[in-house]
Amino acid sequence: MRNAFIEHLTARMQYDDAIFLLVADLGYSVVEPLAERYPDRYLNVGVAEQNMTAVACGLAREGYKVFTYSIANFATTRCLEQIRNGICYHSLPVCVVAVGGGFMYGHLGPTHHATEDIAIMRSLPGMRVFVPFSRRSAELALDEVLAEPGPAYVRLGREGLAVADIDDNGLSLVRRAGDGTSDHAFISVGKICARLLQLTAERRADLYALCRVKPLPAADLRRLFAEYTEVTVVEDHQSAGGVLSALAELTTTIRGLNIDGRFSPGTQDEDGQRDSMLFRQQACTPEHIDSL
């Protein structure tokens, strides 16, 4: 998937002079063709991911559409302050591209595992989150990132499913089991989806892949929940804040008062806190708030 993404990025750079790629001293055997073809829009900043993110913000302020590229845990948790305060707070067109999500660098241990990244990135205001599961899915994720200016996160794996006949990056049916009457569905993300092919076949369950984790394809997911009596989410991520959490938030009937995906200049006093919040419509109404 990472090869497909970089190849597609190279192709898009031919027609868009504003695209710029930053890497943190990795991607060898993947990024060289892009670097050779567009040396003025490629920079290896070295092992300095936080600086890379800051440079990306500066380039974005000058009109570039910037992509940063590093190992998933370094691209996200190491750079979190720069991503939050630089990219998201200013709504800059910077896409954080992460390779090695989940346990892909498993032999290097927990320091190189990225099992909290989806939760962290989808909690940031304005951040879109994509987890491609195939070459075509990676290409579509890139097209979506470029179609709308603003922050984005793309989590890539080395390999993906051989699924080419998708034209939307929301929820994709990978395979139906048996005669197509299964009442059990599996939803997965990223490269781990390939490992579920045998399991879902054995359990006679349908398999779906979800690429766009934020914003979710809400209508498609609600139709899926209505069709199946049992839905299982499989992800190489912590249980808190990941895809399961995102789907649970979509379907919950619990009411809540919270900050709904925005930055706020709110103060500590009661009126300031109330004014700083943008409440979810399905959670409560202004009358509900006033009655508290």
Summary of the model, kept short:
The protein has 292 residues and is α/β, with parallel strands linked by helices.
Salient structural properties:
single chain; 292 residues; alpha/beta; Rossmann fold; 3 domains; seven-stranded mixed beta sheet; 11 strands; 35% helix; globular
Characterization of this structure:
- The chain has helices at 2-13, 32-37, 49-61, 72-76, 80-88, 117-122, 135-147, 196-202, 218-227, 243-251, 270-276, 286-291, and strands at 19-23, 42-44, 65-71, 94-99, 128-130, 152-156, 171-175, 184-188, 206-210, 212-214, 230-234.
- It has three domains: 2-156, 3-Layer(aba) Sandwich (Rossmann fold); 171-251, Rossmann fold, CATH 3.40.50.920; 254-292, no CATH class.
- The protein is an alpha/beta fold and 292 residues long.
- Helix 1 packs across helix 7 (135-147) and helix 3 (49-61) packs parallel to helix 5 (80-88).
What shape does the CA trace take?
globular
Distinct helical segment count: 12
Mean pLDDT: 87
Order of strands, main sheet, comes to: 2-1-3-4-6-5-10
Largest sheet entry: 7 strands, mixed
Order of helices and strands: HEHEHEHHEHEHEEEHEEHEHHH
Count of extended strands: 11
Instruction: Estimate the helix proportion, in percent.
Output: 25-40%
User: Roughly how many Å apart are the termini?
Assistant: 50 Å
How many domains make up the coordinates? 3
Report the top-level CATH class of the largest domain.
Alpha Beta
Based on helices, strands and strand pairing, what is the structural class? alpha/beta
CATH superfamily of the largest domain: Thiamin diphosphate (ThDP)-binding fold, Pyr/PP domains
- CATH second-level architecture of the largest domain: 3-Layer(aba) Sandwich
